[in-house]
Amino acid sequence: MKALATSSGGHVNPAVTIGLAAAGKIPPLDALLYVVSQLCGGTVGALFVRGVLSYEQYVSIQGGATLCAPETPWFQGLIAEVLTTMFLVQTVLTTAVDASTVLAPLAIGFTVLMDIMAVGAISGASMNPARSFGPNIVAMVFMHSKIASNFWTLHWIYYVGPIFGALLAAGLYRVFFTKGDRVV
């Protein structure tokens, strides 16, 4: 992420991009183009994974798809994705966008680590619609007959949750953290 920051802003996550657009940090058209590129990138990455793994290995990891734990109710998965993405986007906004500190990558990485440890067993802690989109699309093509029964059932939470979490973080940021146009 830091390596790409000077040329593209380090945008690899549609939820973060949407959060930055909602916070007024990037133009909406740029955000749209980034999101399309990120979804394509997630798909290309999933194709790469399929190319380097044997079919048996690929099936054993369900194509790298993000899935909720068995018996996890939809609302737990949704809440997990909303909160983890909100923490991630809030960290990006407060450390990498406004302050641009040298410790921003460490803070962001630590936030991702804590998010995964907190809810990885519940929802897989995707926090990234592109990370969920690409592997699921590619797995549908290459292992359609062997996918888990819940493969697509709760997949909407990996789009709705991160986007809502990003918008929530942007709202909190605009209310409490912006310097010039802060509401509170």
From TrEMBL:
Keyword Acetylation among record annotations: no
Major location category of this protein: membrane
Pfam family, one: MIP
Entry superkingdom: Eukaryota
Keywords: Membrane, Transmembrane, Transmembrane helix, Transport
Signal peptide interval: none
GO molecular function: water channel activity
Any one of the GO CC terms: plasma membrane
Topology with respect to the bilayer: Multi-pass membrane protein
Localisation per UniProt entry: Membrane
Gene3D superfamilies: Glycerol uptake facilitator protein
PROSITE patterns: MIP
Coiled-coil annotated residue ranges, if any: none
Transmembrane parts of this sequence: 31-53, 74-96, 102-121, 158-177
Record family assignment: Belongs to the MIP/aquaporin (TC 1.A.8) family.
Protein name: Major intrinsic protein domain containing protein
Species annotation: Haemonchus contortus
Lineage of source species: Eukaryota, Metazoa, Ecdysozoa, Nematoda, Chromadorea
